[in-house]
């Protein structure tokens, strides 16, 4: 056995093995590695996009919450203003109603006073006629009596 021949044959076999590996085995392995690298890169990019979108969604939700709180505060302020208006309107209505009732009561009191005065005049006139009749010891006729009552009422 010759060392040179063996060494050359092993070198040739190794070269054929390397050529076969580079030609037929290496390209599918490289494609698999490149596909895997691309999948990993896409996954990482998707993760970054998801993280970024999560941050954006968090900001949007915080803004929406702030806006909702502001709207709620505005609604509360408007409700308080409306409540104040309703109270003021009710006070005004109550004041108008009390004024109207007061005017009606005053008019009724004036009417009662007028009726009382008329009744009193009538009674005073009757007493005056009775007193005059007792003094004269005679009865005054009806026409004279009516004239006398009218003049007494006018004086009172």
Describe this structure in words.
- There is one protein chain.
- By secondary structure, the chain is an all-alpha fold.
- It has one domain (3-155).
- 95% of the residues lie in helices and 0% in strands.
- It contains two helices and no strands.
- It has helices at 3-136, 142-155.
- Helix 1 (3-136) packs across helix 2 (142-155).
- The longest helix has 134 residues, at 3-136.
- The protein is rod-shaped.
- It starts with a helix and ends with a helix.
- The mean pLDDT is 87.
Question: Would you kindly provide a brief summary of this structure?
Answer:
The protein is an all-alpha fold. The chain has helices spanning 3-136, 142-155. It starts with a helix and ends with a helix.
What is the tally of helical segments?
Answer: 2
* Main sheet summary: none
Q: Which class do the helix and strand fractions yield? A: mainly alpha
How many distinct beta strands? 0
Helix coverage percent:
over 70%
CA(first)-CA(last) distance: 172 Å
**How would you classify the quaternary structure?**
single chain
What is the average of the pLDDT values?
87
Low-confidence stretches: none
Q: Using the alpha-carbon principal axes, give the shape.
A: rod-shaped
Radius of gyration in whole Å, from Cα?
60 Å
Strand content: under 5%
Report the order of strands and helices.
HH
Number of domains: 1
